[in-house]
Specification:
By secondary structure, the chain is α+β, with helices and mostly antiparallel strands. The chain has three domains: 100 residues, Rossmann fold (3-Layer(aba) Sandwich); 72 residues, ATP-grasp fold, A domain (Dna Ligase, domain 1, 2-Layer Sandwich), CATH 3.30.1490; 241 residues, ATP-grasp fold, B domain (D-amino Acid Aminotransferase, Chain A, domain 1, 2-Layer Sandwich), CATH 3.30.470.20. The chain is 35% helix and 26% strand. The protein has 15 helices and 22 strands. The strands form six sheets. The protein has an eight-stranded antiparallel beta sheet, with helices on both faces. Strands 3-2-1-4-5 form a five-stranded parallel beta sheet.
């Protein structure tokens, strides 16, 4: 096991990693920007190293400064968390070159599965269901048009690298495809450093269902069943739940096993999520693979009892998973609400500034993963998430009721948050009756 882990991240995920590492007997080092000098997570760490000014490009995205901090603090491993450098294969490679363990997949596995085109090729080979579309990056627009006409419009142009909705264009007619490819490629190049795009079938109405997996360096890979993340706005998830409700149990198991098989074939070590879209018939097609721990890993922990962050650290240290697939059991239902410092009534404008009041809810089956406390000042440079409110209950209906109560107990002020919106979403018939699709929240917001 590692002696000292450097956490190349901030906020609630930094705290989450600190707690997992502490239980494994590991010391922790947190890097921080000048804007985060009073971050509560720094008090929980054993050591802290400042790596630059507030903007992420001058601090959390500086590989050279993070490596220097690891060397100065004598850290023997680095955990990237999520976001920032978490899915940068070049960062994982630099760590390896500097003989610092990267808590995540190898650069080769990350490159293979993190690139959507190569991931789809491997998925096709091992029998993981995928969308029909171009097999390689688009180089000949006329050929892309021919493929789109064969599979039928609408189609979607997508960046091979990155995510978050950037480098994506929905195309409904052949005459629009050339312009969509050019604009998506240009946006992808600016955002991710690669202009490679591909074309695949677009589903007008679909649910976002993803499978949590774990792999080790001994050739093992298992799934921890699925989550539903259909409640989202502009490709940003608002509510996640596990297991995915109203799913055919046979298809659930087949898809989960196909996801684990994909990791096994890639020689993947660590936590990963294989994301799918599910159509009205309950059939799945793979979207992409997230080669890191995800924000919503908590709901899977709640229904399986498996500490995903700890497991990631253990396998990075060379240990086998120690969990057989037959030992993974589902227990009850869990829901997570991502509470952001945003004003839904003003187009989700970020609410940077001091949080004078912060009272987290509690009680049976209630968990709040947050770095915020009363007096904390939210900086303007980073993601606006205040924390994740998670509940667990024997059934989905009970989990919804428990979450509504937890949201009513949550106190954040004086700035606005998305908590009232979450209460509203939980009350909607689309959510309660599992009639969600990935656009239902946006339709509701337009109606209002």
């Amino acid at each position: 096991m590692f002696e000292r882990i450097l956490i190349a991240n901030r906020g609630e995920i930094a705290l989450r990693i600190i707690r997992a590492a502490r239980e494994l007997g590991c010391e922790t080092v947190c890097v921080y920007s000048e804007a985060d000098k009073d971050g509560p997570w720094l008090e929980a760490a054993d050591h802290a190293v400042c790596i630059g000014p507030g903007p992420a490009k001058d601090s959390y995205l500086r590989i050279d400064r993070i490596i220097a901090a690891a060397e100065v603090s004598k850290a023997d491993a680095i955990h990237p968390g999520y976001g920032f450098l978490a899915e940068r294969a070049d960062f994982a490679e630099v760590c390896r070159d500097c003989e610092i363990s990267f808590i995540g997949p190898s650069p080769e596995a990350m490159g293979l599965l993190g690139d959507k085109i190569s991931a789809k090729k491997l998925a096709r080979e091992v029998g993981t269901p995928i969308f029909p579309g171009t097999e390689d990056a688009v180089e000949d627009v006329d050929e892309a048009v021919a493929v789109a006409q064969e599979i039928g419009f609408p189609v979607i142009v997508k960046a091979a690298a990155g995510g978050g909705g950037r480098g994506m264009r929905i195309v409904r007619e052949a005459s629009e495809l050339r312009g969509a490819i050019e604009s998506a490629s240009s946006e992808a190049l600016a955002a991710f450093g690669s202009g490679a795009v591909y074309v695949e079938k677009f589903l007008e109405k679909a649910r976002h269902v993803e499978v949590q997996c774990l792999g080790d360096s001994h050739g093992n890979a298992i799934h921890l069943f699925d989550r539903d993340c259909s409640s989202q706005r502009r490709h940003q998830k608002l509510i996640e739940e596990a297991p995915a409700p109203a799913v055919d149990p046979v298809k659930r198991l087949e898809t989960a096993e196909a996801a684990a098989r994909l990791l096994r074939e890639a020689g993947y070590c660590g936590a990963a999520t294989v994301e799918f879209l599910m159509d009205a018939n309950g059939d799945y097609s793979m979207l992409e693979v997230n080669t890191r721990v995800q924000v919503e890993h908590c709901v899977t922990e709640m229904i399986t009892g498996i500490d995903i962050v700890q497991a990631s650290i253990r396998v990075a240290a060379g240990e086998p998973l120690g969990i057989d697939q037959s030992e993974v059991k589902l227990n009850g239902h869990s829901i997570e609400c991502r509470i952001n410092a945003e004003d839904p009534d003003r187009d989700f404008m970020p609410q940077a500034g001091e949080v004078k009041t912060f009272v987290a809810p509690g009680g049976l089956g209630v968990r709040m993963d947050s770095h915020v406390r009363s007096g904390y000042r939210i900086p303007p440079f980073y993601d606006s998430m205040i924390g994740k409110l998670i509940v667990h209950a024997p059934s989905r209906d009970e989990a919804i009721t428990r979450m509504r109560g937890a949201l009513s107990d949550l106190r954040i002020g004086p700035g606005k948050s998305t908590a009232p919106l979450h209460s509203k979403l939980l009350d909607r018939s689309e959510f309660r009756n599992v009639e969600m699709d990935i656009h239902w929240v946006e339709r509701m917001l337009k109606e209002d």
